[in-house]
Amino acid sequence: MTVIYILWLREVKKYLRSRTQIIASMGSPIMYLGILGFGLGPVFQRAGQGSYLQFMAPGVIGMTVLFTSIFSGIALLWDRQFGFLKETLVAPVSRLSIMLGRTLGGATVAIIQGLLIFIVCLIAGFRPTSATAIPIAILFMMLIAIVFAALGTVIGSSLKDMQGFQLVMNFLVMPIFFLSGALYPLTNLPKVLALLTRLDPLTYGVDGVRSVLIGVTHFGPTVDLAVLIGVAILLLTVGAWRFSKIEI
Amino acid sequence: MFIAQAGTVTHSFSIATFIRKENGMIRVQNLSKKFGDLTAVDDISFEVKKGEIFAFLGPNGAGKTTTIKMLTTLLHPTSGTVELDGLDPTVARDEVRKRFGVVFQDPSLDQDLTAWENMEIHGVLYGVARKERHERAANLLKLFELWDRKDALVKTFSGGMRRRLEIARGLLHTPRVLFLDEPTLGLDPQSRNQMWTHVKSLNETDQVTVFLTTHYMDEADRVAQRIAIIDHGRIVAIGSSRELKEQTGTESLEDAFLKLTGTTIRDESASSADAMRQVARMWRR
Predict the structure, then answer these.
(1) Best of B68, B110, B130 to disrupt the A interface by mutation (most A CBs within 10 Å)?
(2) N- to C-terminal Cα distance for chain A?
(3) Looking at the complex, does the CB of residue B270 fall below 8 Å from at least one CB of chain A?
(4) B40: part of which helix (H) or strand (E)?
(5) B26-280 in CATH: which number?
(6) Which of B16, B229, B236, B264 is deepest in the core (most CB within 10 A)?
(7) Is B231 helix (H, G, I), strand (E, B) or coil?
(8) CA–CA distances in Å: residue A100 to residues A121, A146, A231, B72
(9) Band of the pLDDT at A231, cuts 50, 70, 90?
(10) Residue B152 and residue A85: Cα distance in Å, rounded?
(11) Cβ contact (<8 Å) for A6 and B121?
């Protein structure tokens, strides 16, 4: 337990210390929110869907959590050769506790980052329907964070070098974001796209956050919650297995 | 008569094994490691005595790092046995891990944490109790002349300071063996000199057994009591610097080394780690 705790603490400490990283990682969500949010707002309104900012704010929060958590996992790749990971791998502790400490630390950082963007959304004019829903929204954010921190661990443990990073970015991370329904409603989609969106775990995360914050949902919060918990358990298991196979 | 003789034989045999157990800190027998078709380490056997400084000297790709990885529980041998302080790393993994400290070829410090925090995490990982952890960390940081920088982030440290911190950290849990894999790579002569002075004095005062790899002859010559020259995964000679020179009839260790390993240049096939090392070098400048 102390091992998991100290490795978790390390991730959080490092995050709180890196002011530039905090600000830099807020760049793209703010851009999406400001440019897409206000740019597409009038069209969305004319299509009879209401305020686009209201609609996409949960999506942008989901996106922030996705990127932060998945990158914390992929950072493993670098850490393995030039970082602290080796020090932990040769210590008399189980790989599972190292993996859990790291992954939970990465997830915590992603939640903090998501909360910051949530505040930015509030400043931009986003209004959740009820304040009491916020803790449940945070629960959904936590699940998104754990799912993708675990996915990042799977990827980071499996890649051999940084070459693969671009591949993962373009063919996995970006599709996960674009297919999640963060930017558009999931109704009346072409069949193939509808199917793909259903395969994307982030879809359920964004839908969950949206359902509790603005009361708009596609699958219903119970389904969202069940899917996210299931995927989280699955990916943590695969992550632990891949992590135990790392050779340095 | 016959019975008495047999008794003596058994008796002397048990004394021999006892002495061997007492003195041998690392014992390697017929150790091999294959990666597919490539034999990185090919049937090597050697013994490192307690309190000894032992150097593994070899050209690039000779199998030095692979051997260290097997000794430090990071790789499973394809065949052969390893014993560290009488324990088998493949069986008593965690017990073995508590008994050694290691400094890898590539840095393994957390650069975004302070020197003290790096020590602290290490202590927790190795289950060193808080009071002892803090005392030892303070002593080691003082010994390695890093005490006044203990609260500075590691990324502000010079290469030599980082190496010293890694060694100090590796010693925090009072290991019996210290593994150093090319610890002076990329350091200036002053830092190298200072580092070895520290390692030697620790070896003398605390009786820490040191196992190091290097391809700097002068270092091996100066610090190590015994040297094994490894080439193409095999040990081609083993002994003190003087013995190696006598054996080859040469004046310097460098000549002895070249005589034993030949003068052809080894082109290590580039691995993904090498590619990353190159990028890392670019970023460090």
Answers:
(1) B110
(2) 25
(3) no
(4) strand B38-49
(5) 3.40.50.300
(6) B229
(7) strand
(8) 31, 10, 16, 23
(9) very high
(10) 21
(11) yes
Token pair listed for B269: 């096939």
User: At B107, phi and psi to the nearest 5?
Assistant: -60, 145
- Domain spans of chain B? 26-280
Contact B100, B72 (CB under 8 A): yes
Asked whether the beta carbons of residue B275 and residue A86 sit closer than 8 angstroms, the reply is no
pLDDT of residue A201: 96
Q: What is the pLDDT of residue B249?
A: 84
Longest dimension (CA), chain B: 77
What is the secondary structure of A114-171 as a DSSP string?
A: HHHHHHHHHHHT---S-GGGHHHHHHHHHHHHHHHHHHHHHHHHH--STHHHHHHIII
Rounded mean pLDDT of B65-73? 91
Contact B242, B70 (CB under 8 A): no
Q: Does B276 touch chain A (CB under 8 A)?
A: yes
- pLDDT (tens digit, 9 = 90+) per residue, A73-113? 888 887 887 778 889 999 999 999 999 999 999 999 999 99
Tokens, residue B178: 């210290």
Residue B20 carries which side chain, given as an amino acid letter?
R
Burial A132-163 (b: 16+ CB within 10 A, else e): ebeebbbebbbbbbbbbbbbbbbbbbbbebee
Q: Which helix (H) or strand (E) holds B155?
A: none
Q: How many CB atoms lie within 10 A of CB B265?
A: 7
**In angstroms, what separates the C-alpha of A12 from chain B's closest C-alpha?**
11
Confirm if A242 and A161 have CB atoms less than 8 A apart.
no
Dist CA A108 CA A114 (whole Å): 10
- Alpha-carbon span A146 to A144, nearest angstrom: 6
With an 8 Å Cβ cutoff, are A87 and B125 in contact? yes
Contact B74 A87 (CB under 8 A): no
Locus of tokens 């300071």: B161
Residue with tokens 């070249």: B258
Question: For B95, which DSSP code?
Answer: H
Distance from the Cα of residue A28 to its chain's centroid: 14
pLDDT at res. B251: 83
**Residue B110 is nearest to which of A10, A78, A247, comparing CB atoms?**
A10
Whole-angstrom distance, CA of residue A191 vs CA of residue A197 = 10
Q: Which residues of A touch B (CB under 8 A)?
A: 2-3, 6-7, 10, 13-14, 17-18, 78, 81-93, 160-163, 247-248
